[in-house]
Design the sequence.
């Protein structure tokens, strides 16, 4: 039986993501949280955020989770190529933390020899009844995120199929605030519970709201792509280094303001 129903595939295709509820039991969530408690996160340089680098290498439990059929069978159906794991990490966030918007099908990439409006690492297509997504992330939530103040996942509707860039023109007009705070007509929140799985086409422009509630916000994330995808390593002078850390960890919009 396919891991994704026709309706789930339709949702993933048209919205750029899919939430599958209660994939992991409360007992598993508890085990994952305890495992993270025993590992050593690093400070990635944003407010009240700790990052657990390379989980498959630092924890057998998280290595297994990255190979878990409940994730991998679903991912296979939207990659449809020989599959490899690109990354596995955890994020523990406290009050006042935020993850600015990143991704977007047509956001501009500055290269050493100019600027392009296609990031091929997220350029996805459809052929003969199958989706071909080169970069798919599985977010396993270990906290309940029930309101924007909990730092909810948010995304710009349709941005995985966008034809125009959104962030660069804003920055060029002098916009200094993030859409996370300022809002945008199609910026939409997604609320999840601990144990839910969010399958994400990385072409979708997404981030999270600013967390304002007490307590931590914990998740583990695995990126997958075709085996021919390589680890991202930028050359000097290029700013297209978005893939290496798994996310744009500083404010992309700020970057565009100060090119
Ligand atoms: O924390 C989230 O809900 C989203 C995480 C994310 O977008 C990322 O790690 O790239």
Sequence:
């Amino acid at each position: 039986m396919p891991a994704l129903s026709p309706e789930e595939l339709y949702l993933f295709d048209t919205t750029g993501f899919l939430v599958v509820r209660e994939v992991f039991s409360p007992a598993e969530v508890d085990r994952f949280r305890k495992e993270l408690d025993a590992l050593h996160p690093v400070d990635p340089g944003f407010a009240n955020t700790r990052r657990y680098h390379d989980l498959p290498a630092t924890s057998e439990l998280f290595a297994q989770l990255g190979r878990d059929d409940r994730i991998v069978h679903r991912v296979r159906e939207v990659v449809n190529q020989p599959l490899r794991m690109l990354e596995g990490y955890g994020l523990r966030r406290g009050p006042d933390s935020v993850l600015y918007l990143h991704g977007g099908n047509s956001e501009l990439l500055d290269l050493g020899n100019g600027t392009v409006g296609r990031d091929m690492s997220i350029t996805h297509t459809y052929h003969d009844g199958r989706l071909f997504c080169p970069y798919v992330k599985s977010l396993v939530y270990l906290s309940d995120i029930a309101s924007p103040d909990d730092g909810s996942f948010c995304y710009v509707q349709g941005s995985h199929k966008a034809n125009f860039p959104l962030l660069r023109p804003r920055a060029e007009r002098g916009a200094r605030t993030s859409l996370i705070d300022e809002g945008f007509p199609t910026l939409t929140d997604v609320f999840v519970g601990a144990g839910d799985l969010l399958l994400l086409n990385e072409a979708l422009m997404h981030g999270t709201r600013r967390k304002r509630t007490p307590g931590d916000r914990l998740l583990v994330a695995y990126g997958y792509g075709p085996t021919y995808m390589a680890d991202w390593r930028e050359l000097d002078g290029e700013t297209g280094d978005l893939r290496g850390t798994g996310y744009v960890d500083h404010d992309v919009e700020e970057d565009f303001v100060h090119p």
About this structure: The radius of gyration is 17 Å. The pocket of 2-oxoglutaric acid is lined by residues 91, 99, 139, 153, 206, 208, 219, 221, 246-247 (CB under 6 Å).
